[in-house]
Amino acid sequence: MFVYLSKKIAIPNNFRLNCIAWNQKEGYVAVGGEDGLLKVLRVDSNTSGSNSGGKSRNITTASNLSMNQTLEGHSGHVQVVTWNEQHQKFTSSDENGVIIVWMLYKGSWYDEMINNCNKSVVKGMAWSLDGLKICIVYEDGSVIVGSVDGNRIWGKDLKGVSLAAVQWSPDGKLLLFGLKNGEVHLYDNQGVFLTKLSMIPVNSGENETIVALQWYDGRNGYVALDCPTLGICYRNGRVVFMRNTNDDNPIVLETGMTAAWCCWNSYGSLLAVTGTMPLLGNGETKDTNVIQFYSPFGKHMRTLRIPGREVTCCAWEGGSLRVALSVDSHIYFANIRLDYKWTYFSKTVVYTNERIGNDGISITFWNTVNNTCCTKYARALIAIDSCGEHCVLAVKNDPAQGSEQFALLVCNSIATPIDSKFINFEPLWVSMTNNVVITASKNNFLVWSYRTPRNAAFNTGKIKREKIYHVDETPTGVTEVIQDLDKDRSFEAPINTKASMDPICCLSATENVLLVGRESGMIQRYSLPQVTITNRYNTACKLYKISINCDSSRASIMDTSGLLTMLDLEGDSNNYDSKDDGDGNGNGNGNGNGNESVDDIKKFERKDVWAMCWAQDNPTLLAIMEKTRMYVLRELDPEEPISCSGYICSFQDLEIRCVLLDDLMQKPEDTRNELIVDLEVKSLRDTRELLVKVGLKEAQNFIQDNPHPRLWRLLGESALKKLDLETAENAMVRCTDYLGIQFIKRLQNVHNDQLKKAEVAAYLGNYDEAEKFYLDMDRTDLAISLRQKLGDYFRVVQLMKMGIGGSDKQMEHAYNKIGEYYAERQNWEGAKEYYEKSRNLEKLLECYYKLEDFVQVAETVQQLPDKSPLLKRVARMLASVGMCSQAVAAYIKYGDVKLAVDTCVRLNHWDQAVELAKTYKMAQIGELLNKYANHLLSNGKRLQAIELYKKANYNLEAAKLLLQLAEEHASFRKNPLRVKKIYVLAALLIEEHVNSTPAIKGTRSNIVMGLVENNEDSRVIENAWRGAEAYHFLLMAHRQIYAGNFDAAMKIALRLREYEDILAPEDIYCLLALSSAVHRSFAVCSKAFIKLESLEVIPETTREEYENLALDVFTKHSPRDVRNSKAECTNCESLVPDWCVACPSCSTRFPACIVSGKPLMDLGNAWTCTVCKHHVATERDVVNINACPLCHSTVTYM
């Protein structure tokens, strides 16, 4: 960072100032001094960018006083002022104990409250972060906490202590009191003592008084996770940094000064400490006013001397770019140029504001061409540099990615890492060339040959890509040669990591030179790519930054005080150990690029420099920033300065690009083109002025004296506009513009001056002007051709509609291009409109698809001829959204039946797939179906397999799976109704199979079915309804028992004996025994018990229970039937019991009524279901029901 004094404001009557405070929100500055002096100032920054030639761009400097109000109310010396930024108030107090709260009303400050207790001197006042409470401490130990509306909340007298400072914690829950003896006491916000911060080292002495307690509130984020936020400043210059009040390892810093005040900046990244310290000046040591800046971790950043006798206080501006100091009877403003971590390459600004977040710090890659941003996150960014098309980030490594603590990431312009290197030493400085990255800690530096997509082919894995050197070593290149020749890589030189007495403090590199600066002022020069030390240069300054020009002939050096000097690198290169103060070279011409002598280079210096950048295409041009002015040095001679406060991005083609990083860092997400400023050097500005106001000849003479390709190109373009082809050609030759030379040769063959002007305008990019020339000549065709080359097809269409300028084919081509324009921007409605005009079906399909107008996609099939390749694309589109039938139609029209079948299979339209396979005689569909079904079954997806077979019209296979499912559910012995439904569904599928198969359709005998079906299929078809019948009668029997109809229940139970292969025999005969017992048919009951006792599958205990139950029943009742109704067999006319399912005489079987379960002796009056072919005794029994009791199909009457 660089600090310099920018403005001085004198206080009238030479009143001495004691305190100063800066409102960081509104910019008001309050100062208090002796004899009741209290003033409020408002210092505005000139941020306007309006000036002739753009010479004033965001000048960060104090300029105008928009307010200068003197406030009356104090009679004694004003000791403390503090702001309440939340409520736009401030409070002041004087040595007499008078406290006044001031408020802003209609642009002026007025006293709102006055407290005059005259009890003691106020030593400190602090508002809480929310602005609702103020704490006031008095020297005698009194503490008062009040509210913003003036009410006293609580007061306390601390006995035996003398207070010196007070501060709220950021959350407003704690209060810190600093004592005169150096102790710090911690209280809660109600005044209850909590603890004494004993970890702060306090030595008894007069200068141990605390002068300031500063606690950063964290409102703008933190620079690190463990960042100290509490700063305690003692008068003897000791500063203690603490992370919190429980920090047992605080950072203790000895500043070597007698401190007066300290304060944090707006982001908690810098602590300013002001006071006096002994400094050497004019050969003697005397106390000097200074302000020193430290990082939160105690690292010294910069010291600024301040004129005057005594500095009393300091305060930061809101954006942390300025600091105000009260010195004697003056207010000094110092501007701060921060060292942001940023770089620029390939039109991309890479930057970070170092605010830590949940993912670490955010590194933004801002493409300044299209104003887009990419973001990369890292734990911490240590250093950054760039070259060509890549940048390198030196970051702290994530422990999850490796044991190394740090990493080097080479990234492209969209934040994508293309190579990485993990290291164990801290990369404090980094420099990058097109081939290598050089990074250094205080003791070592690493030379790493990184890989990019372009040079990856040249970097083989066998070649060692990195090498670590110690700064105290003297590499000669021998080790690298040995390692290159050592194919087995058995030779490995040890790495020296010993701490150096003269550490590294900066470095810079080009393709063939590496300069390493050390804290003693020595610069070591190494050759690249073979690292060999070639020279040492001694300088008499503390090095801060080094930069090398484009041809490695000269280096610019900047020290910590902002002094810029030069170093000649093309002098006596054999002078290995120079002791000169300048550059270590003897005599001779400095750089071969100019006329400076070595003495001139040695004597050159510029003060107050905080940035520098060499031109990329001219080794004698250097741009530097001095305070808020930019100077361009040509041959060490400065040009006319340009007012600018931007940071230099690049210097090329006599143009300097700057970025206003101060604005960008305050709002990192607010990237806009106004933050990029392009400035021209004087020679470019003068050339433009000569060409406009004087003439080509004078301009040419000037350019010959100040040659540069950009100036010759400017001359050539100006000569072209005036049709001075000879001068233009000469200029194009000088700037090696081959395309321009070719254009001039072509232009010499054109004999129409108007046409020449049009061609020149088009060549120079003035397309509207060129078009106007063409139209004035009535050459619409040339205007159309120009616009076509530019891709401006909107204008092409306009020109064609203006008159005869193109054919229908050209118009269609233009419409196509406009459609492409809209399609590239995802505007599919606009694209569709123009593709329809151009009759481009291929592109229309894409538009319809993107707009989800699938009906139009399907209709396109009718417009396409057979075998058209577009049909295949249409089919894929339709299939992707599930429109199977339309996709199949497209494939059929295309002529690819296999793809049609595959589409049906993929979309699970198996019926259509089978139909297509049968129509086009494709045999493999059955195999594919079975394979897929087996896959589903292996994964336990039986229902999906059933659905698959059903959709493919493989009803018999689906029925088999349903029968297996029914048997599985029956084994659970739960929910018999569900089992019946499954059996019914299987039977219905079998009926569909029978009706759809011509070979077995209609009435068939078992023999015929055996000829057509295999044995298993025949059995399944023959017994299609047995399972449904079994569970139907089982459910019916239970219903009859519960209804008390025991006769019907027994008859149904007797019929259930036919289904012992489906139902459990134990269940059948238990039901039969129960129903016959309650029906008092004990003969039937006896037979049922005999059957139960003879079952082999029941356990012995159950068998004994059945025997005991039979004994109990039949000891009371003889085994004979009480009721014995008979009916006549319609076949043999013999009488049989009415419960018989078959005639004992002629074996005629009697079908059951599916409503009552009774055997039907005579089917003459019976009703038959048209679906399951089962019978009901009479049609009267189905009058009151809507569906068949067995198959549940709708009742129809025969």
From TrEMBL:
It comes from the Eukaryota. It holds the Pfam family TPR_IFT80_172. Residues 584-593 have a biased composition (Gly residues). The keyword Zinc-finger does not apply. SMART domains: WD40. Residues 1022-1121 form the IFT121-like TPR repeats domain. Keywords: Cell projection, Cilium, Cilium biogenesis/degradation, Cytoplasm, Cytoskeleton, Repeat, WD repeat. Coiled coil: none annotated. InterPro entries: Beta-prop_IFT121_2nd, Beta-prop_IFT121_TULP_N, Ift122/121, TPR-like_helical_dom_sf, TPR_IFT121, TPR_IFT80_172_dom, TPR_WDR35, WD40/YVTN_repeat-like_dom_sf. It comes from Dufourea novaeangliae (Sweat bee). Residues 711-799 form the IFT80/172/WDR35 TPR domain. This is WD repeat-containing protein 35. The lineage of its organism: Eukaryota, Metazoa, Ecdysozoa, Arthropoda, Hexapoda.
